[in-house]
Amino acid sequence: MSTSTSPGQAAGGPELARVEQALLARWPESRLQPSLARITALVDLLGSPHRAFPVVQVTGTNGKTTTARMIDELLRGFGLRVGRFTSPHLESIRERIVIDGEPISAERFVEVHDDVAPYVQMVDAGSDVPMSFFEVMVALAYAAFAETPVDVAVVEVGMGGTWDATNVVDAKVAVVTPVALDHAEYLGPDVATIAGEKAGIIKPESIAVLAHQPAGALEALVRRAIEVEATVAREGTEFGVLERRVAVGGQQVRLQGLGGEYDEVYLPLFGAHQAQNAAVSLAAVEAFLGAGAASGPVAQDVVRDALAAVRSPGRLERVRSSPAVLVDAAHNPAGMAATVEAVRESFDFTRLVGVVGCVRGKDVSGILEALEPLCAELVVTQNSSTRALPADELGALAVDVFGADRVSVHPLLPEALESAIELAEAGPDDALGGSGVLVTGSVITAGEARTLLAGRRS
Fold it and tell me: Deepest in the core among 142, 269, 283, 446, taking most CB within 10 A?
C-alpha cells in the first residue's frame, strides 16, 4: 500500500493520522513471516472477538473484493447487520473495515486501535517477529465487529489462506474465486500448489463455494473439502451464470443458484467475470442462509435489489467523461485478461490510451502482453508505493511488448494522466466520442488516479 498521506488522514484529522502512521510503521503487507501464532495470541488476549459472529470467508486470486462486496450487499438485503473486511484499500484505510455498508468512522477506528494497541505491544514483546500492519488490521476488524455487534462478517483473505491472518476464524461458508498464478514466491509455482494453500480456509463441516477453477486447482480444493468433510458447491454444477447480455451501465444476467433460478437480474458492473462473481456471491449467501434445492430460491426481489445496488470502486469505474477515463485495479495477467475482454464487450472505444503503473513482484510482462491488443498507446508511470516498479524499468518492459513508438514515460502520475488525456483528445476518433483512457496495473495506481481525478471534478 501507499505510504503517502491518504485522503483518510485529511478527512479524519490528526488522531486518524497518528493511528495510520503507527500502523504503517509496522511490517508492510508485502513482507511476510507465515504464521498464525501472533494473531492467535492477540485475539486470545482480546477475548476471542473472532468467535462472536459467523463468517463468510473469501479467498482466490482475482475478484475477492468485489465478491465480498456482493455478499455483503445480499446479506444486508435479508436484514442482517454485516461487517466486511477487505484489502487493500483504494483511498482511505477505513475502507477496509465496513459495518452496515459504511466504512468505520475515523473516531471509531481510533478508539478500536487505541483499545487494542496495549495487547499488540504484549504480543510484540513475546515474539521474535513484531506483528505486521495486516495482522493488526485483522484484529481491529474482528474487535470492531464483535463490539458492534454484527450478525455476520464477510472476510476477504489477504494472501493465500492457510496462514493468512484472517484464518483464525472458522468460516461457516468458504468461498474460493478463480485461482491463477500470483504471489508465486509465497504461495507456490503452479495453480495446484496455490489452490492447496488457499484451501486452508475450508474448515470441518463448512460449505465450500467454488468458482470455476483450472483442473489442478479444483482437485486441490475438493481434496481439502473431502478431508475435512465439508460440503462442496461448484460453479457449473450446482450454480452458475445461465445467460448474460450487455445493458446500459452494466449487464442483465440470469443466474442458477443453489435453490433455483434468478432471472432479470441487473448488475451495474462490466464483464463476464463480474457475472461470475455475482453467481458465486449468490451461492455463498444461499449456503449461509441454508437455502438449497429442497427449499427453493431465496426471495428474488431481494436478490435483484441487492445486486442492482452493488458498487465496486476501481473496477472498470468511469471517473471522467470526454474523454472517458476508466480506472481498473487489475494487477496480474489473469485479471488484466478479464479487464480487456470486459472493455471490448461493454465499451465502444475505437482508440484507447493506457496508463500503467505496477509494483515489484508481479508478472509485469504478462500484464502488458494481455493489455497490448487493447491500447493504441501506453503511458508508463509509477505510483507512490515503496514497492512501485520505477517508471524507467516498466517503460523498458513496455517497449519490448508495445514497441518504442507506442510508449511514453511519465514517472509522476498526475503528468501521466494529463499526457494520456491529451493523447486521447488528439486522436482522430475523439470528436466522435471513440477515444478513452484506461488507468490500470495496480490497486494503488487505480486508487491514486481515482483520487486525483475526483479532486479535479470537485
Answer: 142
